[in-house]
Amino acid sequence: TGLQHIKGLLKKLQYNWKNDIKPCINTEDIILYKLHTRGFTMSKSSKVKHPGTFKGISEKINYLKKTGINAVLLMPSYEFEEYAFNFNYWGYGKGFYFLPKAAYSSCYGSCVDYTVEFKDMVKTMHRLGIEVLMEFYFPEGCSPRYITECLQYWVQEYHVDGFHVRGVQGICNLMATDPLFADTKLLNIYFPVEEIYGKKNLPKKRMVAECNDGFMIDVRRFLKGDEESLKAFAERMRRNPKGSGLINYIASHDGFTLCDLVSYEERHNEDNGEQNRDGRVQNYSWNCGEEGKSRKKKILELRNRQMKNAWCMLLLSAGTPMILAGDEFCNSQLGNNNPYCLDNEISWLDWKGYKSGNSEMFRFVKDLIAFRKKHKILHMGQELSMTDSLSCGFPGISYHSSSAWYGELDGQNRKIGVMYCGKYADEDELIYIAYNMHWMEHTFALPALPGGYRWNVALDTSEGILEEDKWRLLPDSRQVQVSSRTVIVLIGRKHKDVKESNRTLHNHHKA
Question: 292-309: b or e for each residue (b if 16 or more CB lie within 10 Å)?
Answer without folding.
Answer: eebeeeebbebbbbbbbb
